[in-house]
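Supplementary Methods, section 5.1.

A reviewer requested that the exact input to the structure prediction be made available. We therefore reproduce it here, unchanged from the version used in the analyses.
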Amino acid sequence: MNGDTLYSIGDLARRTGLTVKTVRFYSDAGIVPPADRSPAGYRLYGTDAVARLDLVRTLRDLGLDLPTIRKVVDREVSLPEVAAAHADALEVQIRVLRLRRAVLTAVAKRGSTPEELDLMHKLAKLSDDERQHLIDDFLGTVFDGLYDHPSFAAVTRSLTPELPDNPEAEQVEAWVELAELFQDPGFRSTMQGMARDLAADRAPDDSTGLPRILAEAVRAQVTPALAAGTDPASPEAEPVVTALAGHYAHILGLPDGTALRRRLVTRLETMDDPRRDRYLSLLAVTNGWPAPESLAPVLDWAVRALRARVPQ
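The structure derived from this sequence is encoded token-by-token as follows.
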């Protein structure tokens, strides 16, 4: 071998930290072929065998199979090509493992039955197209007949969950619970009724739509009263009620009065559905948005304040 240093299997094992059995296995697989043989017939290896074995061990630790490793060390394929392909494969595996972890975590928290576990697993595994179909079906039901409403596009965007490509466990859990809500007939009906009510509460000459302004007005007017500990039935609450009724009258283009305030009470009671709050919270988690502040306390206060002043 022109004076080149040659190593026995034992020498390679000591230099690489591998066992003799492992070195022999890679040699038999053709990944680290011998450079020569001793007079007694024992395999001998060149200095490049140490580097090849170090590379083989690294690639095996990263999960590559032996046929692929052999192609890399024999330079039949480039290491960057193999690394890129394997990284893509690992992304898929990681996504699957995250989904499994999320489902199992949710099952442990909720004490789910085997039937619920099966449903949750199926919901978590939905493809992008299947997930989008489920979302479109739900929003299509909620906004049925309202596609021409000026606020339709903006509102649907604000209510659309978008699970990221590499979701965290809590995002998968939130998505699974959202998907369960999508298939709840009662929740669908409630959301559809709320959408129709809010769509109807629009001044005839308004071209922008005002479905969110009512909720924002209630929050703005009632939050200070709540913070001050104002009793909804007390005289101190009267200015807040007047302001809310006046704002609602402006939205509708109608005068303030008993009929309008009764209608406002009905709207606020419909909006004060805990499932709506839960939907918005889950939506924020799924989409990575800031957690929304619950409307329940201000809606409850406003309803009680109005009821204290509206004849039954």
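The radius of gyration is 33 Å. These observations are discussed further in the main text.
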